[in-house]
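Notebook B, p. 112. Complex prediction, attempt 2.
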Amino acid sequence: MPLSPKSPGRAARRQSVGDHKRELILGAARRVFESEGLDGASLRAIAAEAGYTPAALYFHFDSKEAIYAEMLDISLGRLADAVLAAADAEAEPAGRLRAAALAFFAFYAENPRDLDLGFYLLRGGLKPKGLGRARDERLNAALAVALAPIGAGAEALGATPEAARLLVVDVFAHAVGLLLLTHTGRIRMFEASAPDLMRRYLDERVRGLLAGGAGLPDGRG
Amino acid sequence: MPLSPKSPGRAARRQSVGDHKRELILGAARRVFESEGLDGASLRAIAAEAGYTPAALYFHFDSKEAIYAEMLDISLGRLADAVLAAADAEAEPAGRLRAAALAFFAFYAENPRDLDLGFYLLRGGLKPKGLGRARDERLNAALAVALAPIGAGAEALGATPEAARLLVVDVFAHAVGLLLLTHTGRIRMFEASAPDLMRRYLDERVRGLLAGGAGLPDGRG
DNA sequence: GACCGCCGTCTAACAGCGTTCAAAAATCCG
DNA sequence: CGGATTTTTGAACGCTGTTAGACGGCGGTC
């Protein structure tokens, strides 16, 4: 122990003050991001909104991407909360499955900035350079939590674990595709209601589960 | 006619020389983009690769985005070619549908730079500011061409036009979602083979078409 | 009570970006 | 060749994320 702690509670208090300032900056980032968009949100604008000089942000975060990464963590946490709440409001497995998947879809449909953040990651941003490998672990963990009710619902309806996993993957991909294609508003095929498409898709998958034990067979061909 | 054409073939020759230089620049952009990625490809790098000074590019293109937009046009053209070729290699409607959809998927799975370009648009890039409204028309038209064989196959299998349209939309969204989620390689659920997932999904939809006349009912509920 | 050291922030600057503008070079035509 | 037009250039602008060094203030030690 090269450092002799000067006083017991000191480090902890420092830490909590530091955390508070990080949250202050993240809040400013969220506001600027909300009004300017992800690409339009400059570090200087975020710093100004937080009452700081740009350089000061580098004391609290390693980079601008680190701020985005932390915002994504928060976003995924809110997503998981929304999905779990929606699932818990239903009693029957089929209802829980549907509610969870629709809540996932609705979360991103109604919060385009969270969608931007997610797409930023998917498009290759937030590379784990200095962000640490742990970031990816957290990301996958949060995603697993948010999607868990879908798989659980499928298993409760009689699907094998493998079939349930495949259904989760399919629903996830379908939702992401619908969200992305609707998002720009410039692809004519997707000017129609995306939620309707999502509902229709889900209804069919649940019906398949109820009927045959699997909407799509896990052995193909 | 305020401009008196000095000689008949002159404007045409100018035009063709200009087109040639545009293609030269687009080729340089494609190469730089291939090795540096969309975000890493700077205008100065593209200009250097083409043997130009950055400012010279602005004589041939309105902006960097205009270069990207033109690259996207070319990309969508190649996509349509690949899809139509794959469909034409099959005789039966079901085979044509499957081949077209799988070719669409494979085109982007095997050409990540084209995928980047497409996602750049979906993420909000290539806004029709100075790019002109005509860009969006061309974009939608190219997409319609590339996806036409899927809808045609569905109708040949007995689907109503509306059901066929919905199937195209669904397949499109599913493919885009799978491509996007696989693309980063950082979402653990999608480390498995995306083509397999696409095939499985397609098989089921085609089976639904063959069985009931519609894989997913067009009246939901 | 004066001093030292660290923490948090600021000022100033860097290199890079897309873009613009006036001037120069190259090209073409009569 | 002369003059007009089309292309290209060099230099600059304002923006971006980021870094280095200096500065004030606060906590703990002598």
